[in-house]
Write a structure and sequence with these properties.
The structure is a homotetramer of 125-residue chains.
Chain A lengths: L6 E6 L18 E8 L5 E9 L5 E8 L3 E6 L15 E19 L6 E6 L1 E2 L2
Antiparallel strand pairs in A: 1-6, 1-8, 2-5, 2-6, 3-4, 3-6, 6-7
Chain lengths: 125, 125, 125, 125
């Protein structure tokens, strides 16, 4: 049985959803993604809190990552309790009921050619 | 004698092989790479498991990294037990028989100009 | 109450503000950013020291990140005690009065299409 | 007095110097950089070993990073004991006499628009 690597609290200090993007379809639309790997044998209950520069945090945004599955969640798609505003800075805290691994990726298609960034999130606990 | 830095279990939560790419040849073809450094004096037996959003994990994909060598493995090239599908999200868990260092890089050439991302993988054990 | 994840000393070995950039406005101007998340319930007093290749360090540059807030500070905007020169290599050390999480991002718009990089800073203490 | 953050052994599993690049001058030439911050009060004696896929490691390449200084070393510029070949995969191990912080960056200008990647190196000891 695969061990369950990871941590139960992660932080991503960088966050920004560009206000506009390419018309080339969903795959090339500007997006900011949190990639979560649950390599263990228990479903992971995820609660994400979003922090801003000048207002109180929003959330939690709740997701389930089934056992032995990965989900690449787009912040663009978060709707409950409310969408994340475009074009402003934010940060996020990801709490999980079981150990998971978290990585952060952005695809920026504001200009004709896309740009990419990615980094493993900060393992906080 | 060089010490053998690293860990024996690594995770990469982000994974995606773009479905199409540049015609500029192999060096500029879209690819997703796991770079493994075995700086020690013993060969490393590597077993990689691939996780998906909606199906059971695949693998292990097996490789040997000789002592004092590095290999930059392209997920695009994985064939046994089966190729990794293009255009879907995945994640990976890298187990090694001896300590190694793992870094993840993607070159995306879906558009005219390439984009790059890279991050050290998460050291899980 | 949200726990306060992070560390009180971070380092970013890479730093470079491109000397020129796009005319597309502030959002697409070349910039180098330090993103700081203070997820705790106490304001964070930040002191940033800048290191160079061939002169003594400058600083501290002082900022306050309020409790439960994030700030994405552009090195381009640092003015006191003095602006950071363009087009030369630097590095930075970020000290905080309470635990915070730090990530480093650069947007380079020297050419027609932007490029991005990002990485979590090194947690030093 | 500033504390000296960091470690004395770092690894970068990814390495590749593109064989050709932009004609836009040294700042935009394709390069692979190891950024080293010595925030302490003692000079750092650095020894870098380069690992390859199919030959014995080369090195050490030796550098001094003075106290309270940063140096962004381009692998392209390494000459002694011998230059690093272009267009092949490599990895590197960075040993220091005192704690330093190491970050890895690549600028790729093989195509008209540059691409960037960066990540903190793996702190091995």
């Amino acid at each position: 049985m695969t061990p369950a690597p990871g941590r139960t609290l992660w932080a991503i200090a960088e966050g920004y959803i560009p206000p506009a993007g390419s018309d080339a379809g969903r795959a090339l639309e500007s997006h900011e993604t949190v990639c979560i790997l649950n390599a263990g044998d228990t479903d992971a209950e995820i609660a994400i809190t979003i922090f801003f520069a000048d207002r109180e945090p929003k959330g939690p945004y709740r997701f389930t990552i089934p056992a032995r599955r990965t989900r690449h969640l787009r912040f663009n798609d978060f709707v409950t309790p409310e969408p994340i505003p475009r074009g402003i800075d934010y940060a996020s805290l990801i709490e999980s009921s079981v150990p998971v691994v978290v990585q952060h990726t952005r695809l920026d298609s504001r200009q004709a050619e896309l740009a990419l960034l990615s980094t493993v999130a900060y393992p906080a606990a």
